[in-house]
Amino acid sequence: MAEQAPSAEPEGGAPDDDVKRRFREALERKQAKAKAGTAHDDLGSKAGHAHGPAAHKRSFRRKSG
Predict the structure, then answer these.
(1) Within a 10 A sphere around the Cβ of 35, how many other Cβ atoms?
(2) Domain residue extents for the chain
(3) What average pLDDT score do residues 31-55 get?
(4) Model's pTM, two decimal places?
(5) What one-character-per-residue DSSP string does 20-64 give?
(6) What is the Cα–Cα distance from 26 to 30, expressed in whole angstroms?
(7) I need a labelling partner for 52 at 20 to 30 A (CA). Which of 10, 23, 27, 43 fits?
């Protein structure tokens, strides 16, 4: 009876190792997909410049009425 317990333990550990291996492979595939994309470093900003010239001083007008 004592000999049956050790032989059952490796069989019980094998499915866990298989599950871990499959998860690890899936993670590697996911990371490979993320690295396969191109970087956006070479692209410019969406906001290229502000609207209109900002070099002149603002002029405030008093409301009339």
Answers:
(1) 8
(2) 1-33
(3) 68
(4) 0.37
(5) HHHHHHHHHHHHHHHHHSPPSTTS--S--S-SS---SPP------
(6) 6
(7) 43
